């Protein structure tokens, strides 16, 4: 049973990496030759690690915010438990959840991204 959890966690991590790749691909500048177009793309990144469950001993869960110059982008959250891992992606617009409620940890990741 333990090997199954390791495989499941590995597959969830691969899924998260693929999701991040798709987001990065979307935010890349498509027309690099046009200098009159303002530069957009990923400019701010914030990571907040935490422990959302009482029965685990370390900060294995995280929220990762990926924002552009207007503080818009996406926040990826991974909740890791002994028995499961859940991954969520939420849109961010102007530093706030775009029609969605953000957790305190997700808000902290956004604040970290904006400050750095």
TrEMBL record:
InterPro entries: DUF4446 (IPR027981). It comes from the Bacteria. The keyword Transmembrane helix applies. The chain crosses the membrane at residues 6-24. It holds the Pfam family DUF4446. Keywords: Membrane, Transmembrane, Transmembrane helix. This is DUF4446 domain-containing protein.
């Amino acid at each position: 049973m333990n090997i199954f959890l390791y495989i499941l966690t590995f597959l969830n991590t691969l899924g998260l990496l693929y999701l991040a790749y798709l987001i990065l691909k979307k935010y890349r500048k498509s027309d690099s030759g046009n200098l009159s177009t303002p530069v957009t793309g990923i400019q701010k990144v914030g990571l907040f690690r935490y422990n959302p469950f009482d029965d685990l001993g370390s900060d294995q869960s995280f929220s990762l915010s990926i924002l552009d110059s207007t503080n818009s982008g996406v926040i990826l959250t991974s909740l890791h438990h002994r028995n499961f891992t859940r991954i969520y992606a939420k849109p961010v617009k102007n530093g706030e959840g775009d029609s969605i409620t953000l957790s305190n940890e997700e808000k902290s990741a956004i604040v970290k991204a904006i400050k750095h």
